[in-house]
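Reply to dn_fold:

You asked what the input looked like. This is it:
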Amino acid sequence: MNDVGICRLQLYHYGETVSTPFFTETWRPDSFYEKIKKNRALGLHTLCLLDIRVKEPTFESLCRGGKKQYEPPRYMTVNTAIEQLLEVEQKRGDSVYSEETECVGFARLGAEDQKILSGTMKQSESVDCGAPLHCLVIVGKTHPVEEEMLDGVLQIRNCKLKDHMTEEGSRGRQERSRCLSE
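and this is what came back:
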C-alpha cells in the first residue's frame, strides 16, 4: 500500500482493497464489484491487486495423479484487469465505473524500472506496462491536491497515452513524466 503512494493520491482516501482474479471460460467471479461500488459511493479510491498464477498444476496432472506438471506462470496486466472490470460493469449495469473512469496503473513498484500511468480506463486498457507485477487504482473523488498531481505529475489526458517512468535521482526518487503526442 505504501508504494502506491508514489502517485500522490492521499492514502487515507483509499477504501477497501480488492483482488482481481483471472477469468476462465467457466469461472468469472465478480465479488470485487460490490467492494468497488461501496468505495465509489463513499468517494474513495480502490486499490486492485491483480492475480498471479504461479506453480498451478495442469488439469491433466490433477486427474492422473503421479508427478505434477505445472502451467506456465501468469501475471495479470493492467490491460487484462481493465478489460475484466469493464466486462463486469457491463454485466451488472450499476454504472459504478465506465471507460471514462480515471485510473492509475503501476508496474514493478519499487524497482528501478517501475512504471506509472494515469488516464481513463479506455486509454489505459491499450497501454503495455511491460513485465510484471502490476496493480491498478480506480480513482474516487479527488481532493484538489490530488487533482493537481494527476493533472501535473501524471498528466496524460490531452495526449496519446504513454507510460511514465520514475528514475533514481541524486536526491532520491524523482518523477520524470513524459507525455508523447503525435
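The longest strand covers residues 102-107.
Hope that clears it up.
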